[in-house]
Amino acid sequence: MARIAGLFGRVEPRATARAYLLGLLSGTERKNCWQPAEHAGRHRPGPMQRLLRTARWDTAAARDEVRRYVVDHLGTCDGVLIVDETGFLKKGRGSAGVQRQYTGTAGRIENSQVGVFLAYASSRGRALIDRRLYLPEHTWSKDAERRRRTGVPEDVVFATKPRLALQMITAALDAGVGTSWVTGDEAYGQDPGLRAGLEAREVSYVLAVSCATRVRINQGRTLIRADEAADRLPASAWQRQSAGSGAKGPRYYDWAWVQNGTDEHRHLLVRRNPTTSELAFYLCWSPRIVPLSELVRVAGIRWCIEECFQAAKGQVGLDHYQVRNWTAWHRHVTLAMFALAFLAVATDDARPTRPADPNRPARSGEPVDLTVPEIRRLIGALLSPPVTSLNALLHWSNWRRSHQASARRSHYRRRLAIPSST
């Protein structure tokens, strides 16, 4: 809290922000202002709701502090920036940026919001360091009334997801984040503007692309599909290397690379699953000559942002919010990112000083290193308030049921006011 305390002009929102962060780190089932307020011993969630919606504090500066905090504690020379998106499933149409759209969270088209995120990953840990709420072009960017109702700033214009990713990467580089590599999935690798922007900043990349991507191999002039280029590779071109350690040990794949065009700094990287023979493809560029093992390392680290999403949603309530306003979304997500960063740093601090061998199985009776979920359980237990009194429990039960009754009456009035279609 000391890192962001100066962003609050008054003591009340500052204290509420601390209580909110403790609520995110607690073991409460839902982290949506109601239960964190009850956890903090408050009589109502109003102050926490005002913290997200109307209180005066600099959300962008808080985001910048998250980024500094992560780099200060987890930054290393092997750090990689990772871009990806995640969906937030919604029921109504009133939340900023919501519409029926594809989200990987559900694996299909659903009514949802989509956030584009930037993560930093190194040998010491990983955490989310930036976020952008995607605003669909036709249903939101040009609908002035919907924008006004949800508080979307006038200067926010439509930007594709790769464009949002490049904005976050540029901001991180301008802020002094030391990194040589960027990686992301097909949604970002297929965008030539993102690749050109990274090359202009001389930032290396390993970006996934589809099998239909056209490349030039053997310095040829003819463009061919990436999967066709993989079919032409001789057996000697494949090398089995680990893409990093997973939950079940090293993740071994067969890898091959081929120069893309006449530029020795550009390559097509191909990954083959040794069991299923499934192929994955990556476009790679670096201003310096790098070995295959370095490209494999960067390609394998992309999964870290999926781990960040899982931890952020499962441990600190990234998707537990019940807000519709543009500012409130960014404030909740920023505080959740800070809580996750705190857990990532605490996990790194708790690691033993002895060098770890990822290929050595644990000895009988030897525990694994502390993880983010376990650190969250310990922190939540240590910082939990005393057992709540019976009066407090009944007060919150009555408050919730009264609020639900009021919401029900509002819904009934709205439904009854709509003329029947028959």
TrEMBL record:
Pfam families recorded: DDE_5
Transmembrane regions listed in the UniProt entry: none
Domain spans labelled Transposase IS701-like DDE: 8-218
SUPFAM superfamilies: Ribonuclease H-like (SSF53098)
Domain of life: Bacteria
Identification of the protein by name: IS701 family transposase
Annotated organism of origin: Kitasatospora misakiensis
